[in-house]
Every structure is written in C-alpha cells, then in structure tokens.
Amino acid sequence: MKLLVRTAGTGAACAVMIVMTSVVPLHAQEAAPAPTAEARLQALLVDKLGDDAATIRVVMNGREAILLGEVARRATLELAEEVGLFADWVDDVDNKLKLAGLRVGGTGVAGTAEKAAAKTTDEGSDSLIETRVKGALVSEIGRRARKIEVEVAEGVVALRGTVPDEPRREVALRTAARVPGVERVIDLLRAWPGK
Predict the structure, then answer these.
(1) Where do runs of H (alpha helix) occur along 63-192?
(2) Which residues contact 161 (CB under 8 A, 6 or more apart)?
(3) Number of other CB atoms surrounding residue 139 within 10 Å
(4) What is the distance between the alpha carbons of residues 188 and 98, in angstroms, rounded to a whole number?
(5) Are 40 and 59 in contact (CB under 8 A)?
(6) What are phi and psi of 163, to 5 degrees?
(7) Element (H, E) at 93
(8) Which residues contact 45 (CB under 8 A, 6 or more apart)?
(9) What is the pLDDT along the chain (195 residues), one digit of tens a residue?
(10) How many CB atoms lie within 10 A of CB 58?
C-alpha cells in the first residue's frame, strides 16, 4: 500500500485529501503462460530441420510425442524422430508423418517405379554415409563414439547422444561434416561430464 497526501489551498482553507493506492510489484503481475510441450517441440523441430518441419503437428500424450502431417523432404520425415528424442521432456516418438504428394496404391508421380528406385538409391547412399560417419567418429573420439546415434537421410546427418565434454562434441560435429556425401549435420549432442 502507498499513502499519497495532497493538499489544496492555503491557511485555514486548506483541504487535505488522502488517497490510498495499491502498488503491485512487477514480478507479481501475471506473466505470459509458458509455452506448451507441443509448442516447444514444434519450435525445436523447425530449428533443427528447417522450414519443412513447420507443417508438423505435435500432440503430446504424457511423455510421448506424436508427430502428424505432411512434409516435403524425406530427411525431415526420417530425422524428426531423432529431434523429438533429443527433447528432454520426450521419452518416445510416434512418427506418423507422410511425404507430401505420396499416394497410396502406386498412382501419381510419387508412386512410379522411377521414384521408388530413386528412393532405394538414396537410402543405399545414406547407409554408406552412416557407416563412414560411424567409422570416422570411432577414429576421432574412440570408444565414446558408441554413445552417439547416427541417422542419415538425403545426406543430412543427425548426431544424437552424449559426449563427455564440449571439445569432443565439436570434434564429433566437424568429423561428421568432413565425410564425403554429408550435406549438413544436425547437432543433437549433449556434453555431459562423466557420461
């Protein structure tokens, strides 16, 4: 409470007005609500995967994230689960994403044999890149590379797991980026001493 005294006039004709006001500290005022788990995961998906992830709808069921919607790139579709598992408030991911334009029953451009053959070639190339990245990580950081999950889609590499310190995190990211065929590395690593 604050007491404010105001006077009007002078001498015997002076009137005193006392006004009681209430002062609310700034920290006690109502703050904006915290973002929901869904909103935080949505922002993380866009941050790590780019604008293609903006179309993903996230529904949380306890600590399980359900990913819904259509995306344009296979890399977004396949790596969204890794990003979800990186979030410390998520224990499991149910990835129900679909590629935009893909139709059931093999009709349309996305259902042609040429498209299926291209996808198989991409996945074979991704598998080779994954093997090379894992080998390079073992060469650079040794046995600690076993704590790093490596996922590759369309040449985009996601590294998820733990390393004992920040310098080894940086080495792991640089090592993966130098592997032939790697277009981009998504950093989902945590530097935790003692891990």
Answers:
(1) 74-86, 113-141, 166-178
(2) 147, 148, 149, 188, 189, 190
(3) 10
(4) 23
(5) no
(6) -130, 155
(7) strand 92-95
(8) 53, 56, 58, 80, 83, 84
(9) 454 455 555 555 555 555 555 555 555 556 677 889 999 999 999 999 999 999 999 999 999 999 999 999 999 999 999 999 999 999 999 999 999 986 555 454 544 544 444 455 566 799 999 999 999 999 999 998 999 999 999 999 999 999 999 999 999 999 999 999 999 999 999 998 765
(10) 24
What single letter denotes the amino acid at residue 125?
S
Residue 38 corresponds to which tokens in the numbers above?
């869904």
Residue with tokens 């053959």: 117
Q: What is the CATH number of domain 36-102?
A: 3.30.1340
Rounded CA gap, 135 and 74, in Å?
24
In sequence order, what are the beta bridge partners of 34? none
Look at the block and give the residue holding tokens 């903006």: 54
Matching CATH number, 115-195, of 3.20.20.150, 3.30.1340.30, 2.40.50.140, 3.40.50.2000: 3.30.1340.30
